[in-house]
Amino acid sequence: SGQDMVSILQLVQNLMHGEEEEETSQAYRLQNVGEQGHMALLGHSLAAYISVLDKERLRKLTTRILSDTTLWLCRLFRYENGSAYYHEDDRQGLLKICRLVIHTRYEDYAVEGFNVLCTKQPVIYISSAARMGLGQALCNQLGLPLSCMCRVPCNTMFGSQHQMDVALLDRVIKDDIESGKLPLLLVANAGTPGAGHTDKLGRLKELCEQYNMWLHVEGVNLATLALGYVSSSVLAATKCDSMTLTLGSWLGLPAVPAVTLYRHEDPSLTLAAGLTSSQPVEKLRALPLWLSLQYLGHDGIVERIKHASQLSQKLLENLKNLDFIRTSVEDELSSPVVVFKFFQEYSNRDRASHAAQASTIQHPIISNERHIYDALNQWLGEQLAQLVPASGVDVVELEDEGTCVRFSPLMTSAVLGTEIQDVDQLVDCLKMKIPVLTSTLQLREEFEQEVRRTVGLLYIEDLSWPGLGVVRYNCHSDGKNDGKQEKELEKINAELLKKLNELESDLTFSLGPEFGGQKNCVYIGMVTEDLDVSELVETIAATGREIEENSRLLENMTEVVRKGIQEAQLQLQKANEERLLEEGLLRQIPVVGSVLNWFSPFQASPKGRTFNLTAGSLESTESTYVSKAQRAGTTPPPTPTSSLAKQRLPGQKIFKRSLRSSDAFSETSSVSHCDELDQRPPTLSPGPLETEKTEKQEVAQATETDTEDIHSDKLPHGCTKAEEQESQR
């Protein structure tokens, strides 16, 4: 029967926000949707209303909207005599361009289809720094084999390591032509997805003109074409054959389409490729963007892009003054994307030793160091994103640099509302995290050595863990099977983790990552420079031994109690048999026994057994019935505890060592000891004769004392004089 509008809207609201969602999370999801955002959202509703107009009025309106938006974008981004294609998926524009180029280069493609591709296989060239999966997506949509996609490596010797190698591309194109293939299209980057570097678009354009190829450019740096000052590398993008603009993220406009600007003179081919449409409703895709551009105006658009560029420059200037931070930017004067990572430089001595060690076993050391820094930078990026969410920083994986932290305000600042204060807060948080990173990196090796020297602990090497390290307590097997030993190991390490978390320390102990971590281990997080590694390792070992001993004590006590019960049952059964013999056979007969017991009662003391848990022995209860009280047993042995009883300063937490050096502490102790000696009364030092005399007096006094002690004791009866003298001697 259908539902009313109120119920349907309530259902939509519940699906959007949830029935029991907190107000804070709702406010977070709807933040920064200002008037410009509402204007873009209004465009979708208006497009639906406009689509019901009569055909003639609809045609005139859609033509006006499409022509105005295309003209504004071409003027704004310096792309003369261009056409525009509006699409929801940012890869859809490149897909349509590929179809346009195929229709242009293969004249019979519209008639014979893919048969004409068999004569000359088309080749599409993309950079190795392009978006992941872009080449495969194009081949799948175009129905081409993956052999039609050629990934061009980036520079390895000269220039940026994120720019396409032009000389190598030239050789690859020549080889493809000689092998009978047809170079079709080249996809270049004006701001790679990872590091934000721009390819050498000028040389690439010359190369495309030489081999009659189509040049398509995409990237975040294309947004800077709207500014008054544009770098020459990005300005060369205005001469390309097509470019894709993602205005929604640049300007903070929700639900606006991406735009692909292109130049082509044959409208029939653009229609065949799907870049233009004869349906007026298709042209209404530009309506949200048409409304938003009019609302912001030229100055508003330029101001937003300029603000994002200033944010990146502000962060880059601050990063230059920080130690242990390495940046990877293309142009230090104007780089919309800032990529940085934590990296500890070696001193001259450390660099020499590290180089010598690396020359011996190069691959393992470089690989291990790369993994360690990747883990630390992953932790750094997550911490910065959590502490300063308005900054929009994220973690990116680069082929050469590894894991890095990326700040791309052109993609995030308009949506998150990033300001200069957020950049300052980001730098402050980074300054707080750098000492933690350096301390953890320096103490990792010391922690590994301490664990390997400690009996009962096993060091687990997990290079992907951003922390001090991973340790496991190994219990003694005692001939147990693998399954039982594994359960006992899991139980002890779980209890060890619980005990460590109960300590009042600044360290974090955990089971490690949810996926990919080692089992039955204790993961120790980031540390500071005042950590006492030896005390930490000794505490872990002592706590593990305590848990193991308590576990074994419980197991042994269980076994002893079981054996004691069996022994008590045997002794009680034996006592019952003895009691039957003492009472006689007549007392066991029901009637006769009662009469006999009445005339001659049998006095028998109750006999029982008590089990001493402390001594593990079985004892009689006769003394308990006599004294009317249970005898106290021996005192149980003390629970094994850690031998650590380190003296601490007031307010000093566990695992913290004093920042004063040991030399300074020893010097202070020596001075205090000298002060005590100075306070003693002065004494004259004896000369040689006095010393000798004093020694003789002490010997004589000791001899007299020994003689008196001997005479004071009574000699045994019948002792002769000689024996007495011998005893005195």
TrEMBL record:
- Biological process per Gene Ontology, one example term: carboxylic acid metabolic process
Domain PDXDC1/PDXD2 second per the UniProt entry, residue ranges: 335-441
- An example Gene Ontology molecular-function term: carboxy-lyase activity
Residues annotated as domain PDXDC1-like third = 447-552
Q: Which UniProt keywords apply?
A: Coiled coil, Decarboxylase, Lyase, Pyridoxal phosphate
> What residue ranges carry the coiled-coil annotation?
558-585
The signal peptide annotation in the UniProt record is none
The protein's required cofactor(s) are namely: pyridoxal 5'-phosphate
Q: Does the record bear Ribosomal protein in its keywords? A: no
| Chain residue ranges for the region called Disordered | 622-729
Biased amino acid composition, Basic and acidic residues: 708-729
In this chain, composition skew of type Polar residues spans 661-672
Q: Which family does it belong to?
A: Belongs to the group II decarboxylase family.
Protein name listed in UniProt: Pyridoxal-dependent decarboxylase domain-containing protein 1
Species? Tricholaema leucomelas (pied barbet)
Instruction: Print the organism lineage.
Output: Eukaryota, Metazoa, Chordata, Craniata, Vertebrata
